[in-house]
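Forum: Protein Structure Q&A
Topic: Joint prediction for protein chains with partners

I've read a bunch of threads here and the consensus seems to be that you should model interacting components together rather than docking separate models afterwards. I'd like to see that in practice. Below is the full input, 456 residues plus whatever partners are listed. Could one of the regulars post the assembled result?
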Amino acid sequence: GRKVLIVYAHQEPRSLNGSLKSIAVEELSKQGCSVTVSDLYAMQFEPRATRSDIVGCLHNPEEFNYGVEMWEAYKRGDLSSDLIEEQKKVQEADLLIFQFPLYWFSMPAIMKGWMDRVLVQGFAHEFPNCYDSGLLKDKLALFSFTTGGSEEMYAKGGINGDIRYLLWPMQHGIMHFCGIKLLAPHICFAPEYVSEEKRKEMLIAWAQRLKTLWKEEPINCSPEWYFK
Amino acid sequence: GRKVLIVYAHQEPRSLNGSLKSIAVEELSKQGCSVTVSDLYAMQFEPRATRSDIVGCLHNPEEFNYGVEMWEAYKRGDLSSDLIEEQKKVQEADLLIFQFPLYWFSMPAIMKGWMDRVLVQGFAHEFPNCYDSGLLKDKLALFSFTTGGSEEMYAKGGINGDIRYLLWPMQHGIMHFCGIKLLAPHICFAPEYVSEEKRKEMLIAWAQRLKTLWKEEPINCSPEWYFK
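Posted by a regular:
Agreed with the consensus. Here's the joint model:
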């Protein structure tokens, strides 16, 4: 059975994001996958990158360099226990699903903190092992999110610009950098401004997609896909 | 005298980011500007968007919707005191400078949390008052940051893609959305991999730029600038 990690960032279980997360757990479990959820708000996940992420002494206490210290701490096995937990979940997963409401053309800070703190050099990448040879290659990721703006606002000529523009830092800059291949994003546009019926259709569409998810080919994560 | 707010996100005062921040305080003060710094790590600024950001009762306690609750709380004057503080600083500022190390093609989570929690609907935007008619129009913003990757890696054909691609969500998606005009970003590429002399040159170049900053014209914040 395949292993899936859902990293989920919504405060309210009754939200559409909450329902999308539950549907993924249900549908993927039904398929025989083993599903783990990191419910970031429920965990009160720490988003700040600080000295507390390193157990014991610093490599260079004179001038704190977060990247260097995390790399060294990873090699010594001295990362804080919450990060070791998350890294274990990532290591075991075949697929990472990120479920969140779009905040300011990006993920909520609590999820950005997960990226900043968990995907440490040595664990997720280690130059020159980045992009296609990143340390997490052979894994898949899928960004599933809701927006405030409508699909028209996120069209190529729309005021928000093509939705793909804002996927570049998240998909290429983070996931691809670590060697992870991207499945097409799953986007629910403006659920707050549509009918209850439309919202139900959104949930059904997600359940449907999940049924054949493992047959999907990853996108070609190059500038053409984003900016063609 | 003009007012400047520097939102600063680095853990180490002795870092290049720390020096860039200090230089801005010094140079702008010398010009007669009044300069305020929000030193996010020193403040232990909270990045998570939670129920605690609203004082008193919720508008809809049945289903917590962060955006709606924050909008309502703003109108009632019921935002948590740390947010009221930050909004006051923004309101008074003519120019916002964001000083940070690039983390994963974006700002560190602690700064993303500042955006998520401070730039509330009603305060920074209120449909249809967004983009050129955003509620913070007549203000300027400048993103000043350091990178891990070199300038060549962030060139148009480089493995990281054009650095401007990753500026889209931050400059257009956040600042422009609130009506704020953008001065050209100030980027120090890969300071960790250059000589001490080169780093000194970076500091001098920033001080030099600040001397004539108020004569600069904002960029044309449209897709052409980013993806031309």
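Chain A has seven helices and six strands.
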